[in-house]
Amino acid sequence: MKEQFLDNMDLERERGITIKLQAARMRYILNNEPYCLNLIDTPGHVDFSYEVSRSLAACEGALLVVDASQGVEAQTLANVYLALENNLEIIPVLNKIDLPGAEPDRVAKEIEEIIGLDCSDAIHCSAKEGIGITEILNAIVTRIPSPKDTAGGPLRALIFDSYYDPYRGVIVYFRVVDGTVKKGDRIYFMASGKDYIADEIGVLSPYQLQVNELYAGEVGYLSASIRSVADARVGDTITHYGRKAENSLPGYAEATPMVFCGLFPVDADQFPELRDALEKLQLNDAALKFEPETSSAMGLAFDVGS
After folding, report:
1. Which one is the CATH code of 156-240: 2.30.29.30, 2.60.120.10, 2.40.30.10, 1.10.10.10?
2. Binding-site annotation, residues for GTP
3. S-S: 190 plus which of 60, 119, 136, 237, CB 3.0-4.6 Å?
4. What residues are designated binding site?
């Protein structure tokens, strides 16, 4: 078995943390009934709260995972308030109960006092030892509401993540909220006003697996030979070109940059290349903001915040 299966960045695996959100689809059977679970693994650190806000806009519920030895931390409060703002069903989970210093009862009481969540049925688990995993999956099925059946309406899909592939262009991760989308459909991005043909759609298992159609409630990816990073922004709504939705989806909370710097190219002729590189980087980082500036000493540059 592979540890940290969804953490595929070197820094994530080295430090044992999640930096980049990852989506995965899995099949689960409870009481002989098959279920399809769309899971989005988000970072827990407060510095990556924008990743969490993007994910919550595409979910019905959330697992609030708290270290049973550390208790409630700053990022716990920040993330749970984001979930409450999105009216999600929250399931408290006390992790690392296998540690000698674990105090699940104390931490459960702490959650109730500080956050106000009922922890009488909080799940005790250890991801490392595999304890409580079945209980967590059962709770997801029984306590988190299923997506509404709105497959008959006009397509509305929320983009919650994207990245740039040098061969395929922009790859969009999205959640279908209303309607359906098929391979070959002519789709329309409501914020940018651009339209494309969906060359490929699929699900994340967590590897990309092509399918012919995605329905309301499902999470997947989309490739449409999109070359301009500005045409498929995170938070935009996808609809059909020939049957446009009346209103776009609310999207997610805008990120606020916390760290700023000035970037100056060594050669002034490289300024357009630097701009293109920042635009591609911005596609993968919703908190990245930049604007051109001029210095009398160093010439053209970009003021960058993240």
Report:
1. 2.40.30.10
2. 41-45, 95-98
3. 237
4. 41-45, 95-98
